[in-house]
Amino acid sequence: MPANRFNRFTDYGIGIGLRSPHYQHILTRKPVVDWFEIISENFMIDGGRPMHILDQILDQYRVVQHGVSMYFGSADRIDREHLRRLKDLVKRTKTPWLSDHLCWGSVDGRYTHDLLPMPYTFEAAAKTAQKIRDVRDYLEVPIAVENVSSYAEFHVSEMTEWEFLNEVVERADCGILLDVNNIYVSSQNHSFNPFDYINSVPAERVAQIHIAGHSKYEKYILDTHDHPVIDPVWKLYDRAIQRVGHTATLLEWDDSIPTFREVHNEALKANRFLAKSVLARAV
Amino acid sequence: MSLLSLQRTMAKAVMQPLTPSEHMSQRAPNGDPMSKHAATFIKPNDRLTSFERLEIYNRQYWWRLMASLAEDFPGLQAVLGNRRFEALCKAYLTECPSRSFTLRNLGRDLEPWLKKNPRWAGSKQDIALDMLRLEWADIEAFDSGAEEPLRPADLAGTAGSNLRLTLQPYVQLLKLRYPVDTLVLEIKKFNDDTEFLSNAFRERRKRKRVSAVAQLKPKMIFLAVHRADDSVYFRRLEAAEYGLLLAIRNGMTLGQAVSAVFAKRSAHCEADLARVKEWFRNWSELGWFCSAPRKSAKK
Fold it and tell me: A215: helix, coil or strand?
Protein backbone atom coordinates (compact mmCIF):
# COMPACT_ATOMS: atom_id res chain seq x y z
CA MET A 1 0.00 0.00 0.00
CA PRO A 2 2.78 2.58 0.59
CA ALA A 3 3.50 2.83 -3.12
CA ASN A 4 0.13 3.19 -4.75
CA ARG A 5 -1.55 4.85 -7.71
CA PHE A 6 -2.22 7.97 -5.65
CA ASN A 7 1.48 8.67 -5.15
CA ARG A 8 2.40 7.27 -8.55
CA PHE A 9 3.87 4.11 -7.04
CA THR A 10 6.70 5.94 -5.30
CA ASP A 11 8.15 5.31 -1.85
CA TYR A 12 9.70 8.63 -0.92
CA GLY A 13 10.56 8.17 2.77
CA ILE A 14 10.80 11.12 5.15
CA GLY A 15 10.72 14.68 3.87
CA ILE A 16 10.49 18.20 5.23
CA GLY A 17 8.90 21.40 3.97
CA LEU A 18 11.17 23.63 1.91
CA ARG A 19 11.24 26.96 3.76
CA SER A 20 13.21 30.12 2.99
CA PRO A 21 15.24 30.26 6.26
CA HIS A 22 16.84 26.95 5.19
CA TYR A 23 17.64 27.81 1.57
CA GLN A 24 21.23 28.76 2.19
CA HIS A 25 21.94 25.69 4.33
CA ILE A 26 20.44 23.33 1.77
CA LEU A 27 22.17 24.86 -1.24
CA THR A 28 25.58 25.14 0.38
CA ARG A 29 25.69 22.03 2.61
CA LYS A 30 23.58 19.80 0.37
CA PRO A 31 22.24 17.69 3.27
CA VAL A 32 20.86 14.23 2.55
CA VAL A 33 17.07 14.55 2.59
CA ASP A 34 14.67 12.04 1.04
CA TRP A 35 12.46 14.75 -0.44
CA PHE A 36 11.13 18.26 -0.01
CA GLU A 37 7.54 19.44 -0.06
CA ILE A 38 7.01 22.89 -1.55
CA ILE A 39 4.03 25.18 -1.10
CA SER A 40 2.87 25.48 -4.70
CA GLU A 41 1.62 29.06 -4.33
CA ASN A 42 5.12 30.28 -3.37
CA PHE A 43 6.33 29.29 -6.83
CA MET A 44 3.33 30.14 -9.01
CA ILE A 45 5.13 33.27 -10.18
CA ASP A 46 6.93 34.29 -13.34
CA GLY A 47 10.54 34.47 -12.17
CA GLY A 48 13.08 35.83 -9.72
CA ARG A 49 14.84 34.33 -6.75
CA PRO A 50 12.16 31.82 -5.69
CA MET A 51 12.22 30.15 -9.12
CA HIS A 52 16.01 30.21 -9.24
CA ILE A 53 16.15 28.50 -5.82
CA LEU A 54 13.52 25.98 -6.89
CA ASP A 55 15.47 25.03 -10.00
CA GLN A 56 18.58 24.42 -7.92
CA ILE A 57 16.60 22.27 -5.49
CA LEU A 58 15.04 20.33 -8.37
CA ASP A 59 18.51 19.57 -9.70
CA GLN A 60 19.40 17.74 -6.50
CA TYR A 61 16.27 16.63 -4.67
CA ARG A 62 12.88 15.06 -5.16
CA VAL A 63 10.09 17.58 -4.75
CA VAL A 64 6.36 17.16 -4.12
CA GLN A 65 3.87 20.01 -4.46
CA HIS A 66 1.43 20.90 -1.70
CA GLY A 67 -1.15 23.63 -2.22
CA VAL A 68 -3.03 25.86 0.19
CA SER A 69 -5.57 27.66 -1.99
CA MET A 70 -7.26 25.29 -4.44
CA TYR A 71 -10.26 25.17 -2.09
CA PHE A 72 -11.76 21.99 -3.48
CA GLY A 73 -14.74 22.53 -1.17
CA SER A 74 -15.62 26.06 -2.27
CA ALA A 75 -18.92 26.38 -4.09
CA ASP A 76 -17.11 28.84 -6.41
CA ARG A 77 -15.94 27.74 -9.84
CA ILE A 78 -12.28 26.88 -10.23
CA ASP A 79 -10.05 29.88 -10.90
CA ARG A 80 -8.66 29.20 -14.41
CA GLU A 81 -5.65 31.48 -13.89
CA HIS A 82 -4.79 29.54 -10.76
CA LEU A 83 -5.00 26.24 -12.62
CA ARG A 84 -2.90 27.48 -15.52
CA ARG A 85 -0.13 28.61 -13.23
CA LEU A 86 -0.35 25.40 -11.23
CA LYS A 87 0.00 23.31 -14.36
CA ASP A 88 3.10 25.27 -15.39
CA LEU A 89 4.60 24.45 -12.02
CA VAL A 90 3.62 20.77 -12.21
CA LYS A 91 5.47 20.54 -15.51
CA ARG A 92 8.51 22.19 -13.97
CA THR A 93 8.69 20.10 -10.79
CA LYS A 94 7.40 16.82 -12.28
CA THR A 95 5.73 16.24 -8.92
CA PRO A 96 4.57 12.59 -8.73
CA TRP A 97 1.40 13.65 -6.94
CA LEU A 98 -0.13 16.90 -5.82
CA SER A 99 -1.95 17.63 -2.59
CA ASP A 100 -4.25 20.33 -1.30
CA HIS A 101 -6.80 20.61 1.48
CA LEU A 102 -10.29 19.26 1.93
CA CYS A 103 -11.71 22.66 2.83
CA TRP A 104 -13.08 25.86 1.38
CA GLY A 105 -11.75 29.41 1.60
CA SER A 106 -13.32 31.58 -1.08
CA VAL A 107 -16.82 32.52 -2.09
CA ASP A 108 -18.07 34.79 -4.89
CA GLY A 109 -14.43 35.35 -5.90
CA ARG A 110 -13.43 36.69 -2.48
CA TYR A 111 -10.60 34.88 -0.72
CA THR A 112 -10.20 34.42 3.02
CA HIS A 113 -6.74 32.82 2.67
CA ASP A 114 -7.75 30.36 5.36
CA LEU A 115 -8.57 26.65 5.39
CA LEU A 116 -12.21 26.81 6.43
CA PRO A 117 -14.04 23.66 7.56
CA MET A 118 -16.53 21.85 5.35
CA PRO A 119 -20.12 21.17 6.25
CA TYR A 120 -20.21 17.37 6.17
CA THR A 121 -23.16 17.01 3.80
CA PHE A 122 -23.77 14.81 0.77
CA GLU A 123 -24.21 17.92 -1.37
CA ALA A 124 -20.79 19.22 -0.31
CA ALA A 125 -19.18 15.82 -0.85
CA ALA A 126 -20.56 15.55 -4.39
CA LYS A 127 -19.52 19.08 -5.40
CA THR A 128 -16.07 18.72 -3.83
CA ALA A 129 -15.45 15.37 -5.51
CA GLN A 130 -16.42 16.79 -8.90
CA LYS A 131 -13.98 19.65 -8.46
CA ILE A 132 -11.16 17.27 -7.50
CA ARG A 133 -11.87 15.23 -10.65
CA ASP A 134 -11.84 18.37 -12.81
CA VAL A 135 -8.54 19.55 -11.34
CA ARG A 136 -6.94 16.12 -11.74
CA ASP A 137 -8.08 15.86 -15.34
CA TYR A 138 -6.65 19.28 -16.16
CA LEU A 139 -3.35 18.84 -14.34
CA GLU A 140 -2.89 15.18 -15.31
CA VAL A 141 -1.35 14.27 -11.97
CA PRO A 142 -2.72 12.20 -9.06
CA ILE A 143 -4.41 14.30 -6.38
CA ALA A 144 -4.34 13.68 -2.62
CA VAL A 145 -6.66 15.65 -0.34
CA GLU A 146 -5.60 16.59 3.17
CA ASN A 147 -7.88 16.61 6.21
CA VAL A 148 -7.67 20.02 7.96
CA SER A 149 -7.68 21.09 11.59
CA SER A 150 -10.94 22.74 12.52
CA TYR A 151 -12.38 24.85 15.30
CA ALA A 152 -16.05 24.84 14.35
CA GLU A 153 -18.75 22.34 13.34
CA PHE A 154 -21.95 23.05 11.44
CA HIS A 155 -25.54 22.20 12.29
CA VAL A 156 -26.14 21.06 8.69
CA SER A 157 -23.55 18.27 8.87
CA GLU A 158 -24.99 14.85 8.10
CA MET A 159 -21.97 12.67 8.95
CA THR A 160 -18.67 12.62 10.82
CA GLU A 161 -15.55 14.19 9.37
CA TRP A 162 -14.01 10.81 8.54
CA GLU A 163 -17.21 9.64 6.86
CA PHE A 164 -17.15 12.82 4.81
CA LEU A 165 -13.51 12.27 3.85
CA ASN A 166 -14.32 8.73 2.74
CA GLU A 167 -17.37 9.90 0.80
CA VAL A 168 -15.31 12.51 -1.07
CA VAL A 169 -12.32 10.32 -1.92
CA GLU A 170 -14.50 7.44 -3.08
CA ARG A 171 -16.57 9.73 -5.32
CA ALA A 172 -13.48 11.50 -6.66
CA ASP A 173 -11.37 8.34 -6.75
CA CYS A 174 -8.45 10.32 -5.35
CA GLY A 175 -5.77 9.85 -2.72
CA ILE A 176 -5.52 11.06 0.86
CA LEU A 177 -2.83 13.13 2.50
CA LEU A 178 -3.45 12.00 6.04
CA ASP A 179 -2.47 14.70 8.52
CA VAL A 180 -2.31 12.97 11.88
CA ASN A 181 -1.66 16.22 13.74
CA ASN A 182 -4.81 17.70 12.24
CA ILE A 183 -6.76 14.64 13.36
CA TYR A 184 -5.41 15.12 16.88
CA VAL A 185 -6.20 18.87 16.91
CA SER A 186 -9.74 18.36 15.65
CA SER A 187 -10.33 15.44 18.03
CA GLN A 188 -9.48 17.69 20.96
CA ASN A 189 -11.57 20.58 19.63
CA HIS A 190 -14.59 18.42 18.85
CA SER A 191 -14.26 15.67 21.47
CA PHE A 192 -13.98 12.57 19.32
CA ASN A 193 -11.64 9.61 19.51
CA PRO A 194 -8.82 10.22 16.99
CA PHE A 195 -8.24 6.47 16.65
CA ASP A 196 -11.79 6.08 15.32
CA TYR A 197 -10.75 8.47 12.55
CA ILE A 198 -7.45 6.72 11.78
CA ASN A 199 -9.13 3.32 11.81
CA SER A 200 -11.78 4.36 9.33
CA VAL A 201 -9.48 5.80 6.67
CA PRO A 202 -9.25 3.68 3.48
CA ALA A 203 -5.61 2.66 3.83
CA GLU A 204 -5.18 1.90 0.14
CA ARG A 205 -5.82 5.56 -0.70
CA VAL A 206 -3.22 7.13 1.60
CA ALA A 207 -0.57 8.72 -0.61
CA GLN A 208 1.28 10.66 2.07
CA ILE A 209 1.23 11.51 5.77
CA HIS A 210 1.78 14.87 7.51
CA ILE A 211 3.07 15.30 11.03
CA ALA A 212 3.42 18.63 12.86
CA GLY A 213 3.29 20.47 16.17
CA HIS A 214 0.53 22.73 17.43
CA SER A 215 -0.33 25.23 20.18
CA LYS A 216 -2.61 24.45 23.11
CA TYR A 217 -4.86 27.16 24.53
CA GLU A 218 -7.21 27.00 27.47
CA LYS A 219 -10.29 25.94 25.52
CA TYR A 220 -8.99 24.78 22.17
CA ILE A 221 -5.92 23.78 20.17
CA LEU A 222 -4.60 25.71 17.18
CA ASP A 223 -2.74 24.09 14.31
CA THR A 224 0.28 26.39 14.32
CA HIS A 225 3.14 24.21 12.99
CA ASP A 226 5.54 25.90 15.38
CA HIS A 227 6.46 23.14 17.83
CA PRO A 228 7.89 19.62 17.80
CA VAL A 229 5.46 16.73 17.38
CA ILE A 230 3.92 15.67 20.69
CA ASP A 231 3.70 12.06 21.90
CA PRO A 232 -0.05 11.62 21.37
CA VAL A 233 0.46 12.61 17.72
CA TRP A 234 3.33 10.13 17.38
CA LYS A 235 0.99 7.46 18.75
CA LEU A 236 -1.55 8.32 16.07
CA TYR A 237 1.21 8.22 13.50
CA ASP A 238 2.24 4.78 14.79
CA ARG A 239 -1.31 3.53 14.35
CA ALA A 240 -1.56 5.10 10.90
CA ILE A 241 1.65 3.41 9.78
CA GLN A 242 0.41 0.08 11.16
CA ARG A 243 -2.62 0.45 8.94
CA VAL A 244 -1.16 1.93 5.76
CA GLY A 245 2.44 0.70 5.83
CA HIS A 246 5.67 2.52 4.98
CA THR A 247 4.31 5.78 3.56
CA ALA A 248 5.92 9.05 2.45
CA THR A 249 5.92 11.22 5.57
CA LEU A 250 6.49 14.92 5.91
CA LEU A 251 7.08 17.17 8.92
CA GLU A 252 5.51 20.63 8.64
CA TRP A 253 7.23 23.45 10.54
CA ASP A 254 6.07 26.87 9.34
CA ASP A 255 6.47 29.33 12.19
CA SER A 256 9.29 30.01 14.68
CA ILE A 257 11.33 27.82 12.34
CA PRO A 258 14.44 26.39 14.03
CA THR A 259 17.65 25.34 12.25
CA PHE A 260 17.51 22.96 9.35
CA ARG A 261 19.17 20.27 11.46
CA GLU A 262 16.55 20.54 14.23
CA VAL A 263 13.67 20.32 11.78
CA HIS A 264 15.21 17.39 9.93
CA ASN A 265 16.02 15.52 13.15
CA GLU A 266 12.43 15.95 14.33
CA ALA A 267 11.19 14.54 11.03
CA LEU A 268 13.57 11.59 11.21
CA LYS A 269 11.95 10.47 14.47
CA ALA A 270 9.31 8.99 12.18
CA ASN A 271 11.89 6.37 11.21
CA ARG A 272 11.34 4.36 14.36
CA PHE A 273 7.70 3.80 13.43
CA LEU A 274 8.43 3.18 9.77
CA ALA A 275 11.13 0.62 10.66
CA LYS A 276 8.74 -1.14 13.01
CA SER A 277 6.19 -1.41 10.24
CA VAL A 278 8.74 -2.90 7.84
CA LEU A 279 9.74 -5.47 10.48
CA ALA A 280 6.14 -6.33 11.26
CA ARG A 281 5.38 -6.96 7.61
CA ALA A 282 8.54 -9.06 7.19
CA VAL A 283 7.63 -11.41 10.04
CA MET B 1 -28.78 25.51 4.15
CA SER B 2 -27.00 24.91 0.82
CA LEU B 3 -23.23 24.81 0.52
CA LEU B 4 -23.13 28.18 -1.24
CA SER B 5 -25.46 29.80 1.24
CA LEU B 6 -23.49 28.54 4.23
CA GLN B 7 -20.20 29.68 2.72
CA ARG B 8 -21.58 33.14 1.98
CA THR B 9 -22.94 33.44 5.52
CA MET B 10 -19.71 32.34 7.15
CA ALA B 11 -17.42 34.36 4.86
CA LYS B 12 -19.38 37.54 5.61
CA ALA B 13 -18.99 36.98 9.32
CA VAL B 14 -15.32 36.02 9.07
CA MET B 15 -14.50 39.09 6.97
CA GLN B 16 -16.35 41.49 9.25
CA PRO B 17 -13.86 43.85 10.97
CA LEU B 18 -12.76 43.12 14.53
CA THR B 19 -13.56 45.51 17.35
CA PRO B 20 -10.78 47.85 18.58
CA SER B 21 -9.99 45.27 21.27
CA GLU B 22 -9.59 42.66 18.51
CA HIS B 23 -12.70 40.64 19.25
CA MET B 24 -15.53 39.67 16.95
CA SER B 25 -18.22 42.29 16.56
CA GLN B 26 -21.30 41.82 18.73
CA ARG B 27 -23.42 42.72 15.70
CA ALA B 28 -23.73 40.36 12.71
CA PRO B 29 -23.62 41.59 9.08
CA ASN B 30 -27.42 41.19 8.92
CA GLY B 31 -27.92 43.38 12.02
CA ASP B 32 -28.78 40.53 14.42
CA PRO B 33 -26.80 39.97 17.59
CA MET B 34 -23.75 38.01 16.46
CA SER B 35 -24.24 35.37 19.17
CA LYS B 36 -27.70 34.61 17.76
CA HIS B 37 -26.45 34.72 14.16
CA ALA B 38 -23.48 32.39 14.83
CA ALA B 39 -25.75 29.90 16.59
CA THR B 40 -27.86 29.54 13.44
CA PHE B 41 -25.09 27.72 11.60
CA ILE B 42 -22.30 26.81 14.05
CA LYS B 43 -22.65 24.26 16.82
CA PRO B 44 -21.43 25.15 20.30
CA ASN B 45 -19.44 22.58 22.28
CA ASP B 46 -18.84 22.00 25.99
CA ARG B 47 -16.11 24.69 26.11
CA LEU B 48 -16.95 27.25 23.43
CA THR B 49 -20.12 28.99 22.29
CA SER B 50 -20.95 29.28 18.59
CA PHE B 51 -19.82 32.91 18.82
CA GLU B 52 -16.44 31.93 20.26
CA ARG B 53 -15.85 29.24 17.65
CA LEU B 54 -16.63 31.64 14.82
CA GLU B 55 -14.47 34.29 16.46
CA ILE B 56 -11.39 32.07 16.08
CA TYR B 57 -11.76 32.27 12.30
CA ASN B 58 -12.68 35.96 12.34
CA ARG B 59 -9.52 36.86 14.25
CA GLN B 60 -7.26 34.60 12.22
CA TYR B 61 -8.55 36.17 9.03
CA TRP B 62 -7.72 39.69 10.14
CA TRP B 63 -4.43 38.87 11.81
CA ARG B 64 -3.19 36.95 8.77
CA LEU B 65 -4.12 39.62 6.25
CA MET B 66 -2.92 42.53 8.35
CA ALA B 67 0.41 40.77 8.90
CA SER B 68 0.72 40.19 5.18
CA LEU B 69 0.19 43.87 4.37
CA ALA B 70 2.62 44.93 7.11
CA GLU B 71 5.23 42.60 5.63
CA ASP B 72 4.72 43.94 2.11
CA PHE B 73 4.46 47.65 2.99
CA PRO B 74 6.85 48.46 5.86
CA GLY B 75 7.63 51.82 4.24
CA LEU B 76 3.98 52.85 4.23
CA GLN B 77 3.77 51.77 7.87
CA ALA B 78 6.78 53.97 8.67
CA VAL B 79 5.24 56.91 6.83
CA LEU B 80 1.84 56.66 8.53
CA GLY B 81 2.77 55.23 11.93
CA ASN B 82 1.35 51.95 13.25
CA ARG B 83 -2.13 53.12 14.27
CA ARG B 84 -2.90 54.98 11.08
CA PHE B 85 -1.44 52.15 8.97
CA GLU B 86 -3.65 49.60 10.71
CA ALA B 87 -6.74 51.75 10.26
CA LEU B 88 -5.94 52.20 6.58
CA CYS B 89 -5.38 48.45 6.05
CA LYS B 90 -8.64 47.57 7.81
CA ALA B 91 -10.58 50.04 5.68
CA TYR B 92 -8.89 48.78 2.50
CA LEU B 93 -9.53 45.10 3.25
CA THR B 94 -13.13 45.84 4.19
CA GLU B 95 -13.78 47.60 0.89
CA CYS B 96 -11.48 45.50 -1.28
CA PRO B 97 -11.35 41.90 -0.02
CA SER B 98 -8.74 39.72 -1.67
CA ARG B 99 -9.69 38.55 -5.16
CA SER B 100 -6.58 36.50 -5.79
CA PHE B 101 -5.60 33.01 -4.67
CA THR B 102 -2.26 34.33 -3.47
CA LEU B 103 -1.46 36.78 -0.67
CA ARG B 104 1.26 38.13 -2.92
CA ASN B 105 -1.44 40.17 -4.66
CA LEU B 106 -3.16 41.45 -1.53
CA GLY B 107 -1.85 45.01 -1.90
CA ARG B 108 -2.38 45.18 -5.66
CA ASP B 109 -5.27 47.65 -5.43
CA LEU B 110 -4.00 49.65 -2.48
CA GLU B 111 -2.66 52.59 -4.51
CA PRO B 112 -5.84 53.21 -6.58
CA TRP B 113 -7.91 52.70 -3.45
CA LEU B 114 -5.91 55.26 -1.47
CA LYS B 115 -6.20 57.76 -4.32
CA LYS B 116 -9.98 57.51 -3.98
CA ASN B 117 -9.86 57.53 -0.17
CA PRO B 118 -7.25 60.16 0.80
CA ARG B 119 -8.60 60.63 4.32
CA TRP B 120 -6.79 57.47 5.49
CA ALA B 121 -3.39 59.06 4.86
CA GLY B 122 -4.45 62.61 5.75
CA SER B 123 -1.67 65.14 5.28
CA LYS B 124 0.73 62.34 4.30
CA GLN B 125 -1.26 61.43 1.16
CA ASP B 126 1.42 62.33 -1.40
CA ILE B 127 4.29 60.64 0.34
CA ALA B 128 2.07 57.63 1.18
CA LEU B 129 1.13 57.21 -2.48
CA ASP B 130 4.77 57.44 -3.54
CA MET B 131 5.73 54.87 -0.96
CA LEU B 132 2.95 52.53 -2.13
CA ARG B 133 4.09 52.81 -5.73
CA LEU B 134 7.66 52.02 -4.75
CA GLU B 135 6.78 49.08 -2.51
CA TRP B 136 4.47 47.56 -5.11
CA ALA B 137 7.17 48.03 -7.77
CA ASP B 138 9.55 46.23 -5.39
CA ILE B 139 7.18 43.24 -5.25
CA GLU B 140 6.78 43.21 -9.04
CA ALA B 141 10.51 43.50 -9.66
CA PHE B 142 11.22 40.65 -7.24
CA ASP B 143 9.25 37.93 -9.00
CA SER B 144 8.23 39.13 -12.45
CA GLY B 145 9.42 37.15 -15.43
CA ALA B 146 12.67 37.69 -17.29
CA GLU B 147 13.36 37.12 -20.97
CA GLU B 148 16.70 36.34 -22.59
CA PRO B 149 18.45 39.74 -22.47
CA LEU B 150 19.90 41.48 -25.48
CA ARG B 151 23.58 42.22 -24.83
CA PRO B 152 25.48 45.23 -26.25
CA ALA B 153 26.84 42.99 -29.02
CA ASP B 154 23.29 42.04 -30.05
CA LEU B 155 22.42 45.69 -30.47
CA ALA B 156 25.60 46.74 -32.28
CA GLY B 157 24.54 45.73 -35.77
CA THR B 158 20.90 46.62 -35.40
CA ALA B 159 21.09 50.24 -34.30
CA GLY B 160 18.69 52.37 -36.19
CA SER B 161 15.95 54.84 -35.57
CA ASN B 162 13.27 52.27 -36.49
CA LEU B 163 14.45 49.75 -33.94
CA ARG B 164 11.77 48.81 -31.42
CA LEU B 165 13.11 47.44 -28.15
CA THR B 166 11.35 45.65 -25.31
CA LEU B 167 12.08 46.24 -21.65
CA GLN B 168 12.32 43.29 -19.28
CA PRO B 169 9.01 42.73 -17.42
CA TYR B 170 10.79 43.12 -14.08
CA VAL B 171 12.01 46.68 -14.81
CA GLN B 172 9.60 49.09 -13.11
CA LEU B 173 9.76 52.82 -13.90
CA LEU B 174 8.63 55.37 -11.34
CA LYS B 175 8.31 59.12 -11.14
CA LEU B 176 8.00 60.09 -7.48
CA ARG B 177 7.47 63.37 -5.66
CA TYR B 178 9.44 62.31 -2.60
CA PRO B 179 12.82 60.52 -2.37
CA VAL B 180 11.19 57.55 -0.63
CA ASP B 181 13.79 55.15 -2.02
CA THR B 182 16.23 56.23 0.68
CA LEU B 183 13.66 55.43 3.34
CA VAL B 184 12.90 51.98 1.97
CA LEU B 185 16.61 51.20 1.78
CA GLU B 186 16.98 52.33 5.38
CA ILE B 187 14.10 50.07 6.44
CA LYS B 188 15.59 47.09 4.62
CA LYS B 189 18.93 47.72 6.29
CA PHE B 190 17.20 48.15 9.64
CA ASN B 191 15.42 44.81 9.25
CA ASP B 192 18.65 43.06 8.28
CA ASP B 193 20.64 44.67 11.11
CA THR B 194 18.10 44.12 13.87
CA GLU B 195 16.91 40.64 13.02
CA PHE B 196 18.39 39.28 16.25
CA LEU B 197 17.83 42.29 18.50
CA SER B 198 15.28 42.66 21.26
CA ASN B 199 11.83 44.04 20.51
CA ALA B 200 12.42 47.04 22.81
CA PHE B 201 15.56 48.03 20.93
CA ARG B 202 13.83 47.57 17.59
CA GLU B 203 10.98 49.80 18.74
CA ARG B 204 13.35 52.59 19.78
CA ARG B 205 15.13 52.43 16.45
CA LYS B 206 11.77 52.38 14.69
CA ARG B 207 10.62 55.55 16.45
CA LYS B 208 13.78 57.33 15.31
CA ARG B 209 13.07 56.22 11.77
CA VAL B 210 9.49 57.48 11.91
CA SER B 211 10.64 60.91 12.99
CA ALA B 212 13.09 60.90 10.06
CA VAL B 213 10.17 60.22 7.74
CA ALA B 214 8.27 63.19 9.09
CA GLN B 215 11.15 65.41 7.97
CA LEU B 216 11.37 64.02 4.45
CA LYS B 217 11.06 66.99 2.06
CA PRO B 218 9.48 66.81 -1.41
CA LYS B 219 11.98 66.28 -4.21
CA MET B 220 11.05 64.85 -7.59
CA ILE B 221 12.96 61.69 -8.40
CA PHE B 222 12.93 59.20 -11.28
CA LEU B 223 13.61 55.61 -10.46
CA ALA B 224 14.08 52.22 -12.09
CA VAL B 225 13.27 49.36 -9.76
CA HIS B 226 14.97 46.33 -11.26
CA ARG B 227 16.56 42.99 -10.49
CA ALA B 228 20.09 41.70 -10.78
CA ASP B 229 21.34 38.35 -9.48
CA ASP B 230 17.93 37.74 -7.89
CA SER B 231 18.10 40.91 -5.76
CA VAL B 232 15.98 44.04 -6.25
CA TYR B 233 17.79 47.35 -6.75
CA PHE B 234 16.67 50.98 -7.00
CA ARG B 235 18.48 53.01 -9.63
CA ARG B 236 18.00 56.75 -9.77
CA LEU B 237 17.49 58.04 -13.31
CA GLU B 238 17.79 61.44 -14.94
CA ALA B 239 14.47 62.88 -16.09
CA ALA B 240 15.34 62.40 -19.78
CA GLU B 241 16.63 58.90 -19.10
CA TYR B 242 13.31 58.03 -17.45
CA GLY B 243 11.40 59.60 -20.35
CA LEU B 244 13.34 57.59 -22.89
CA LEU B 245 12.79 54.28 -21.05
CA LEU B 246 9.11 55.06 -20.63
CA ALA B 247 8.73 55.81 -24.33
CA ILE B 248 10.46 52.52 -25.18
CA ARG B 249 8.20 50.65 -22.76
CA ASN B 250 5.20 52.29 -24.42
CA GLY B 251 6.23 50.83 -27.76
CA MET B 252 7.92 53.75 -29.50
CA THR B 253 10.80 53.12 -31.89
CA LEU B 254 14.22 54.42 -30.82
CA GLY B 255 13.89 57.34 -33.19
CA GLN B 256 10.45 58.26 -31.90
CA ALA B 257 11.56 57.94 -28.29
CA VAL B 258 14.64 60.14 -28.71
CA SER B 259 12.66 62.73 -30.66
CA ALA B 260 9.94 62.79 -28.01
CA VAL B 261 12.39 63.32 -25.18
CA PHE B 262 14.83 65.71 -26.84
CA ALA B 263 12.49 67.54 -29.22
CA LYS B 264 12.93 70.95 -27.64
CA ARG B 265 16.64 70.65 -26.95
CA SER B 266 18.37 70.79 -30.35
CA ALA B 267 21.00 73.19 -29.00
CA HIS B 268 22.48 70.40 -26.92
CA CYS B 269 22.22 67.74 -29.59
CA GLU B 270 25.76 66.35 -29.50
CA ALA B 271 25.98 66.31 -25.74
CA ASP B 272 22.58 64.66 -25.58
CA LEU B 273 23.62 62.03 -28.09
CA ALA B 274 26.64 61.13 -25.97
CA ARG B 275 24.42 60.79 -22.89
CA VAL B 276 21.92 58.62 -24.73
CA LYS B 277 24.73 56.32 -25.92
CA GLU B 278 26.04 56.04 -22.39
CA TRP B 279 22.56 55.22 -21.05
CA PHE B 280 22.00 52.56 -23.68
CA ARG B 281 25.35 51.01 -22.85
CA ASN B 282 24.40 50.86 -19.16
CA TRP B 283 20.90 49.51 -19.78
CA SER B 284 22.25 46.86 -22.12
CA GLU B 285 24.88 45.81 -19.61
CA LEU B 286 22.16 45.49 -16.98
CA GLY B 287 20.20 43.25 -19.37
CA TRP B 288 17.14 45.49 -19.39
CA PHE B 289 16.34 44.89 -23.06
CA CYS B 290 14.99 41.62 -24.31
CA SER B 291 14.47 40.33 -27.78
CA ALA B 292 10.86 39.30 -27.95
CA PRO B 293 7.89 41.43 -26.98
CA ARG B 294 6.03 39.67 -24.21
CA LYS B 295 2.74 40.29 -22.52
CA SER B 296 3.38 40.36 -18.79
CA ALA B 297 1.41 37.59 -17.12
CA LYS B 298 -1.63 38.55 -15.10
CA LYS B 299 -1.05 38.65 -11.38
Answer: strand
In chain A, which residue's Cα lies nearest the Cα of B1? Answer: A156
Q: Tell me whether residue B62 is in a domain.
A: no
The whole-angstrom separation of Cα B76 and Cα A228 is: 36
Per-residue pLDDT tens for B226-245? 999 999 999 999 999 999 99
Q: B36, exposed or middle or buried, with CB in 10 Å at 0-12, 13-18, 19+? A: exposed
- DSSP calls for chain B: --HHHHHHHHHHHHTSPPPTTS---SB-TTSSBHHHHHHHHB---SS--HHHHHHHHHHHHHHHHHHHHHHH-HHHHHHH-HHHHHHHHHHHHHHS---SSSGGGTTTTHHHHHHH-GGGTGGGHHHHHHHHHHHHHHHHHHHS--PPBPPHHHHHTT--TT---EE-TT-EEEEESS-HHHHHHHHHHHHHHTTTS-HHHHHHHHHHHHHHHHTPPP--EEEEEEEETTEEEEEEE-HHHHHHHHHHHTT--HHHHHHHHHTT-GGGHHHHHHHHHHHHHHHHHHT-EESS--PPPP-
**Residue B239 maps to a domain:** yes
Cβ atoms of residues A18 and A253 within 8 Å:
no
Average pLDDT over residues B197-201: 57
Return phi, psi of residue B20, to 5°: -55, -30
The domain that holds B280 is classified in CATH as: 3.90.930
Please state the ipTM of this predicted complex.
Answer: 0.95
- Sequence-distant (≥ 6) Cβ neighbours of residue B199 within 8 angstroms: none
Report the SS3 class of residue A214: coil
Residue B49, CA distances (Å) to B56, B117, B128, B133 in order: 11, 38, 42, 44
Which domains does chain A possess?
A: 14-282 (3.20.20.150)
Q: Are A117 and B43 in contact (CB under 8 A)?
A: no
Q: Domain span at residue B162?
A: 144-179+216-299
Phi, psi for residue B109 in degrees, rounded to 5? -100, 10
Q: Quick one: CA dihedral A270, A272, A273, A279, positive or negative?
A: positive
Q: How far apart are the first and last CA of chain B?
A: 34
d(CA B150, CA B165): 9
In a domain, residue B238? The reply is yes
Any CB–CB contact under 8 A between B294 and chain A? no
Reply yes or no on whether the pLDDT at A164 is more than 80.
yes
Above 90 in pLDDT, residue A99?
yes
A87 touches chain B (CB under 8 A): no
* Residues of chain B contacting A222 with CB distance shorter than 8 Å: 56
The answer to whether residue B4 neighbours chain A at the CB level (below 8 Å) is yes
Q: Give the predicted TM-score (pTM) of the model.
A: 0.92
Question: Is the residue at B101 inside a domain?
Answer: no
3-state secondary structure of A120: coil
Q: Which residues of A touch B104 (CB under 8 A)?
A: 41, 45
Q: Cα(A175)–Cα(A137) distance, rounded to whole angstroms?
A: 14
The structural domain count of chain B equals: 1
